[in-house]
């Protein structure tokens, strides 16, 4: 089961960072929740809305650690961006059931992004 968890989570992670929303969503179960400092979603694709905008500033993703069990996983990685934020250290915790992701908790310090988001808002 741990190997299946790894395959599912890594497939989701890789699809998301290449902007392949259908492939990422295919790894998500019918019942699903997503939480991050900026987004809350109960939709398999709702949390991926706007991914193109985020990916347009991502210059690379460097996986630091991955931990897996039968029903959960945690990835720790750096997201390198072409933005004033630079590199964002991120942790992502997944829960799974029946080979599908049922919840994702995305953890990062959102403070550096406040100024970037304020500058991007229309006046």
Report a brief summary of the structure:
The chain is α+β, with helices and mostly antiparallel strands. It has four helices and six strands.
Structural class: alpha+beta
Shape: globular
Strand order of the biggest β-sheet: 2-1-6-5-4-3
Measured as a percent range, the helix fraction is 25-40%
| Rg, nearest Å | 14 Å
Low-confidence stretches: none
Instruction: Tell me the number of strands.
Output: 6
- Please describe the biggest sheet, giving its number of strands, its sense, and whether it closes into a barrel: 6 strands, mixed
Tally of helical segments: 4
Strand content: 35-45%
Alpha carbon gap, first and last residue: 51 Å
Series of secondary-structure elements, N-terminal to C-terminal: HHEEHEEEEH
What is the arithmetic mean of pLDDT? Answer: 92
What features would you describe in this structure?
- The protein is an alpha+beta fold and 123 residues long.
- The protein is 29% helix and 41% strand.
- The protein contains four helices and six strands.
- The protein has helices at residues 2-17, 21-25, 51-55, 111-120; strands at residues 28-35, 40-41, 58-68, 72-81, 87-97, 100-107.
- It has a six-stranded mixed β-sheet, covered by helices on one side.
- Strand 1 and strand 2 (40-41) form a beta hairpin.
- The chain is globular and about 50 Å long.
């Amino acid at each position: 089961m741990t190997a299946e968890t790894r395959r599912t989570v890594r497939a989701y992670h890789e699809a998301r960072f290449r902007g392949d929303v259908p492939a990422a969503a295919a790894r998500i179960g019918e019942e699903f929740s997503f939480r991050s400092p900026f987004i809350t979603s109960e939709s398999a694709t709702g949390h991926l809305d706007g991914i193109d905008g985020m990916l347009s500033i991502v210059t690379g993703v460097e996986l630091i650690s991955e931990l897996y069990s039968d029903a959960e996983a945690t990835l720790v990685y750096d997201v390198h961006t072409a933005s004033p934020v630079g590199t964002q250290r991120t942790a992502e915790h997944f829960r799974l059931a029946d080979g599908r992701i049922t919840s994702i908790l995305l953890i990062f310090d959102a403070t550096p992004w406040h100024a970037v988001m304020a500058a991007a808002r229309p006046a």
